[in-house]
Amino acid sequence: MFQTDVLIIGTGIAGLTTAIQLARKRPDLKIRLVSKTAKDEGNTRYAQGGIAAVWDRIRDDFEKHVLDTLDAGDGLCNEEAVRIVVEEGPSRVQELIDWGARFDKIDAAHYDLAREGGHSESRILHFQDVTGAEIERALLDKCAELENVEILERRFAIDVITQHHLGYNVTRIMPDIECYGAYLLNLQTLEVETHLARATVLATGGTGQIYRTTTNPLVSTGDGIAMLYRAKGHVENMEFVQFHPTALYRPGSENPAFLISEAVRGFGAVLKTRSGEAFMHRYDPRESLAPRDIVARAIDNEMKTLGEEYVCLDCRHLDREKFLAHFPNIYEKCISVGIDPLEQMIPVVPACHYMCGGIKVDLQGRSSIARLYACGESTCTGLHGANRLASNSLLEAAVFGYRIAADLCDHIGAMQLRMDIPEWDAAGTAHPREMVLITQSIKELKEIMSYYVGIVRSNVRLERALNRLHLLYEETETLYHSTTLSAALCELRNLITIGYLVTRSAAMRRESRGLHYTTDYPEQRGFSQSTLL
Question: pLDDT at position 255, please?
């Protein structure tokens, strides 16, 4: 049994920022972060475009950023959350810079601010086209300087610990559920460890692996959201899955798909059909720089109308030297697959990219379960609404990491370790004899979600998905309760939970809004209840 003051599950920008902020404010607290693979593996590392913040106060201001975010969110943002993130954002970005994160500059005094879809001004700070990797590096280096922060790798979070594990009947309507830590599977010893904590933070990232084509890394299996839901916590807006319009098309569907950053369109690239005809003017006056939900649906419609497997991104008119300076990683990837993006159009398709819903939290990052906080992509803070504005995600994680740390400083004194937690009981389980049962179920899940719960949905598709997901759920639960735990089995279980939540939430929203488009209610508005209790 392991003990700590604060247990943080996840080592991306959300988890690391929370740890650093808390460790600096309270050096007396012991803080433990855990990662299910290597500490630098996760969605943060793969973020290309950058982090949005009002930096140029002459041309830009908070109100513009707020309005851009509200417009992208299609009427479902929490305006108070939007204003908090936008107004506190520049201070959090400055802290990243102070901690060693580098962003591209025009000269010694001015940052090179990029523009992306949905933004009315250039406000994206970036480091070439690998911004996330640079931020991850700086945060890990900063954590290494803090004596009261410990990082454990290869620990898979199975479940958060609540009164349920003490024999109580915990229900979703209980107002006093409490979290006492988490059970973690040590992937090196294959033993389940009990980690007790006064407070626990879920910062487990995205859910992209529920789909066949995604820009998310293999670790993005929605673990935190699934654990919270099993613990009877509240989730919200799970129907709003953002598909990035421009992933590199490769026959055979690379996993993860390589992202062609939205910043390339901000730089001047134009979406065209394979025959070279621009088409976005038919869908939105902002053309290739419209918000992602509009662009992804436009591409999906063009592909279906023309019977094509992809559309193209035309960069051939752009300045070669500047393109290479801004997008060296994208250029190298294209060259590696036989495409010179400055001589040939880049084949692109939409790919699952970001979960706009998740664990319902308040403005301090507190979930519906006491002593359990959450931040980053695994949460629904109210910032994104029905569609995330480009490059707001890293900003949200930094802001809420700071706010969680501040709230813990005020309240952790009243939180005490609960010591009567039982060890994990694996009695009656055996090693699985056929791993194909797990791998095939994951494949089936991805097919179900991709065909029936994708960019365009309908009542018939959603009903069919729910029926098939229920069968997968029953099969997997039987396997889970009879076999020794493995990362693959736990991920399958979490993915099925996420698939169900996305599909069920989509079925509950009888309107088309933002990232949720249904052919049964293409124009209807007004039904906005998607919190699952």
Answer: 86
